């Protein structure tokens, strides 16, 4: 795939997450997909991604995470977001729903093989989010 096609795939993938359409994520992910929310903590398969991420997103119903910058080279796409949401859902890292609004940055690195995302690496400061909630 071209760099532009990879960027388009990444854009559609994150639009699907923002729409909370988790069932559709399998259409974007390679059969050997691996998600790394931390450097050495892999979640295998799209089910692992959904299990790991849905509980975070469920804490902030109707969240927004507009893409601010996307950079691509060869088979990789880096995506920078600003996440905004109000904590009215499930507990987040042990913090009960607070009603507080949070705003934080996210950086993701995707690797694409055969037109599908095979690897997603996440970089976020969870302590900043918890600080905003307390």
From TrEMBL:
InterPro entries according to UniProt: Cyclase_SnoaL-like (IPR009959), NTF2-like_dom_sf (IPR032710)
Lineage: superkingdom: Bacteria
Pfam families with a match to the protein in the record: SnoaL
PANTHER family xref list: ESTER CYCLASE, POLYKETIDE CYCLASE SNOAL-LIKE DOMAIN
Protein name (database record): Ester cyclase
The organism of origin for this protein: Cohnella hongkongensis
